[in-house]
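Acetylornithine deacetylase structure dump, as promised
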Amino acid sequence: MADVEELLAQLIRIPSINPRGRAEPAETPLAEYVADWARGHGMAADLHEVVDGRCNVVVTLPGDSAETILLETHLDTVETEGMTVAPFAPTVADGRLHGRGACDAKGPLAVFLTAMADLARRGPRPHTVVLAGVVDEEHVYRGVLHLRDQGVTRNGPVVGAVVGEPTSLRMVTAHKGCMRCRITARGPGGHSSEPWGRVNPIATLAQVVDHLTGEYAPALEALARPLVGPPSLAVTMIEGGTGPNVLPESATITVDRRTVAGEDPHAVWSELRHDLLTRWPEHLEVAEPHIVDHALETDPGDPFVRAVGDVLREAGHDPEPKGVGHGTDASKIAWDGVPCVVFGPGAIAQAHTPAEFVPLAELHAARGVLDALLRRRIHTGAPA
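structure tokens r here:
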């Protein structure tokens, strides 16, 4: 296998499953490998502990200008239970490389690293290039938040960021955010043979769900954005009850409210809570969000976005901006005013699947796009 294939295979061999709150240095062996590999190819690399021994890795290749192109992707993967291919023994079949993380997101990581190594070897280097491999993207985003705290997203200055995710070689410039919270109904409980006059939390939540899906969610159509469409709301979990002959004292649903650009997830929660408590002022509690993420909407006219589109067009790929419904680290990087695009080989439909794979043709095509982008002088109007 050629360089990017060989590196991807090695990255897959190093487990980096997100521990989801457990105190384990899950991604650190992969971060250490990336740092050693980068140093061996003429680049500087540093590890930065985020939490519980879990380390981000930051690779730097100085250029002719202090203006920086940031390449960011995540080191962690989801779990491997139920996989139908060996998760950590990469295999190639029918032009596809299989293994956990093949497309999400060790494929983009291999593309970024090999493109930087080739740039270090042959140049030219119109910009400084920084690669950040971060932890915890699959859970609560602590890796990218730590990256921001360190100022990596502001050094240079950063003229633009490519966030590595499977996009089927499309340039994603917009995606949704989310607000997830739990809604609990309470009642006095009692024997199920005497339900009269008693508040049944399950019945209350049935009314809540009917309102959310029948009135609240349809009204979101008015907030549609061009590339991602409207916000959405889905009830994703329900729990409650202790026995078939007992009226429950509580029942809880979890809602996943997807947001679009211009919406603050915390304000969305506050408005939803006010709506529900106005309608059900007693017996209902709306907990503060346990997960929030912001939407992304990058200006398609930004010089960096235009440069990525030009490179895609010249390589024969679709250069038009695209929107997606899922979130990425790009929305957090964009908080610092960095124009972000999300790009990588493989399809999101293959991420997290039992036979996760990346098409080798797309892997090499993505490498070609990065090669061309990193050698292009991007004129931002700011002094170099």
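Residues 177-293 form a domain with the Alpha-Beta Plaits fold (CATH 3.30.70.360).
lmk if u need the other ones
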